[in-house]
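Hi X.,

You mentioned you wanted examples for the new student's onboarding notes, showing what a folding record looks like when two proteins sit in one file. Here is a clean example. The first protein comes first, with its sequence line followed by its structure tokens.
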Amino acid sequence: MTTIPSELKTRHRAMWASGDYPGMVDTFLTPLGPRLVDACSIGPGTRVLDIAAGTGNASIPAAERGAVVTASDLTPELLHAGANRTDLELDWVVADAEALPFEDETFEVVMSAIGVMFAPHHQDAADEVVRVCEPGGTVGLLSWTPEGMLGALFRTMAPYAPAPPPGAQAPPLWGGEGHLRRLFGDRVEWNSLRREVLEITAFEHAYDYGALFKARYGPTIAVRANAERNGRADEFDAALDAFCDEWNLADPGEPARFEMQYLLAVGTRV
């Protein structure tokens, strides 16, 4: 198992605590959590672990169904925001997705909605997913695809980003069927691998989408700060505007409309 240097963990925590990710979830990401919970057939009494749970976008809907939910995340600020969103009883645990503090085969369902995909060392995170899921249990993952809008966003930002840490892989790879099969091998039998879209109609103008990411989304905030340090902030802003124009599906004069593709993968831990 790769041990992430504490300095890297600290930077990742700070990145996700920057901006306003809870507000971003409320703006357009909320539907994803219930979709994952539905796909995992979570019900009363199910022992559930949500990895990289953030503000509980999937954890809270699972708890609403009577599940016994542990919401884990590297960033305490996000867990605190999630706990403030509900009166339901959940276990909010600060945890590294690459080194989870749970016993082997503890949970009936191990899930993650656009969360574990951001752990930099994919194989380590996948190994932890398998380790803490009981045999016959369910693994449920909802991840942005490489070919979709978020995959394109990360490619747009890449020329302005700092060098990735050694061994890190791009987050949207988790949204590729082949990548998942390589990560999990014969340890998970995939029952369903479906590509779906989240339609975004929350913005009047296409550029408002990019402005929200620059103001609220930790990875974009970090990349733009690096671009500014290198005298490329205006270039970055222009590239993000061009990205918004390219992916806006609305007709001229209509409010912006985007489609963000994700892979919904549900399998059985062998």
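Then the second protein repeats the pattern, sequence line and then tokens:
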Amino acid sequence: MSQVKAKKHLGQHFLTDKNIAEKIVNSLIHTHKYKKVLEVGPGMGVLSDFLLKKEAFETYLIDIDTESFEYLHRQYPNLGDKLINADFLALNFKDIFLEPFAIIGNFPYNISSQILFKVLENRQQVPEVVGMFQKEVAERCVAKPGSKEYGILSVFLQAYYKCEYLFTVKAGVFNPPPKVLSAVIRLSRNEVADLDCDEKLFWQVVKAGFNQRRKTLSNALAGIIPKDKQDDTEVWTLRAERLSVADFVKLTNLISLNIKEN
């Protein structure tokens, strides 16, 4: 069977190591929370082979690449409408899944952050994500307050998910090899249905704080709450990278209160 040619503009790097592929698939551990799994960017099906052997869930595949789609259609003729030729980022999950489902993939590195924000937007429907990312993106997802990797993505993901760094993957197990190291992480939905604050304001505060991460929060957030409306709490003297998710929730509530009182 003819091989699929990796396309640079789609960020394709096909995993060739079956042991690693099996390890990634076996990293789905919360299978009691869903009955369906969506693989993003299956390429030539190295993960799909292991996913389709699992009886705990039904496997769906989505690939924007028509050549991959046609290859997979020949490879798995019984998949029918569970094989989808579409853009994951443009997909309305509720058109396909009426209940919770997991997401897995060797994700294209050029859209990895967009994939994670898509997951966040649909967090009530996605209890688990297992995926391969560029190592530095994986490190950002799991970073702790105070580290240089800690940022917007860290806070948003950790607000709603337990984020685990599982293992590092070398470039040589891909075709073509990427110029970076890769890593597999797992996101497990936590018990937080809603944050204990104005969530829209929370997102604004986190983004503003990190967009000027070298500045103190007093300066970085002046566009949201002018300095003359900020109280004398110590938090204003800190930088965004020092604050945990819980700290950002408290700060959001403090801002809400100060805006109302002034």
